[in-house]
Amino acid sequence: xxxxxxxxxxxxxxxxxxxxxxxxxxxxxxxxxxxxxxxxxxxxxxxxxxxxxxxxxxxxxxxxxxxxxxxxxxxxxxxxxxxxxxxxxxxxxxxxxxxxxxxxxxxxxx
Length: 110
Prior knowledge:
Elements: H1 7-22, H2 37-47, H3 52-63, H4 68-81, H5 90-103
């Protein structure tokens, strides 16, 4: 489990907050089936080391969280497991988090 003061939690919360203030958050019922083929390939290749299986498992588990705060805790594990590069891949990470904002449109993390 992830420590509540983990630096990545703060980073994801800040991304969540910025996205919610800068973008229109259109709620979606489920993450499953919400990705275009282009998005899916981009996320798989950049954030999941090319593994569609890892992407599938992660999105399923992210989809089952109670709220955005829960999703972020799991996102920290995913980011660490896959060594996300927040400098090089920030735009793609933000697009992925935006999907979560839409899935958890009514429960901002902070």
